[in-house]
Amino acid sequence: MSDQLSPNITDPLNPGTIKRVLETALLTSQEPLSLSELKKLFNNELSAEVLRKFLEELREQWSERGINLVTVAGGWRFHTTLEMQLFLDRLSPIKPPRYSRAVLETIAIIAYRQPATRGDIEGIRGVAVSSAIMKTLEGRGWIETIGHRDVPGRPALYATTKKFLDDLSLRTLEELPPLEELGSLVDSTEKKEVLPIEEPVT
Fold first, then answer.
1. Where are the domains of the chain?
2. Class of the domain covering 101-187
3. Please, are residues 69 and 78 in contact by the beta-carbon 8 Å criterion?
4. Alpha-carbon distance 10 to 102, whole Å?
5. Would you say the CATH fold of 101-187 matches that of 15-90?
């Protein structure tokens, strides 16, 4: 934020100004913003508690609109409601490739059994997990290596990331839906061009 204030902003810590600044930052950000990041907008002069109060007021003001203010693992962001998304989808009628069953099963196992190794995943799925599947999930930013299991070969341990929760509009893993619903929830996340990975040929 520039140190030079706009002519009509004489008090940057005025409640109305604070909400305008928060609203503008959140509407223009591509990623969720944490409280620590939002504090920078005001040179760290506002506490997290005060910011949270203003954010809750903004959430209430936007509650009846087509865009809602929500909290996810990465912080706060504006999110299109499901009702409005049905209309917005008409602007992009070409559907992107959907994830294959192999990819969905792999991310589901990691999400619900984490930390998990490729051996764990293969033991549950009953088939080998191709490197392409793991690279797809890592490329999307949904999984990461968090360590290695202390067994021969020291296989990598995989866990889901904060971005995985953000893309599913969740705050914590405890908010994950019943396992059978995860596939449809993944399909409804923000649309990005990720080619499906098919089952490895045996």
1. 15-90, 101-187
2. mainly alpha
3. yes
4. 57
5. yes
Asked if residues 46 and 144 have their Cβ atoms less than 8 Å apart, the reply is no
Distance, CA of 36 to CA of 53 (rounded, Å): 15
**Rounded distance between C-alpha atoms, residue 76 and residue 159, angstroms:** 23
Two tokens at 32?
A: 């969720």
Q: What topology is assigned to 15-90 in CATH?
A: Arc Repressor Mutant, subunit A (1.10.10)
Spell 86-105 as b/e; 16+ CB within 10 A means b.
eeeeeeeeeeeeebbebbbb
75 Cβ contact list (under 8 Å, min separation 6): 32, 33, 34, 35, 37, 38
pTM, two decimal places:
0.68
pLDDT in tens, 30-76: 899 999 999 999 999 999 999 999 999 999 999 989 999 999 999 99
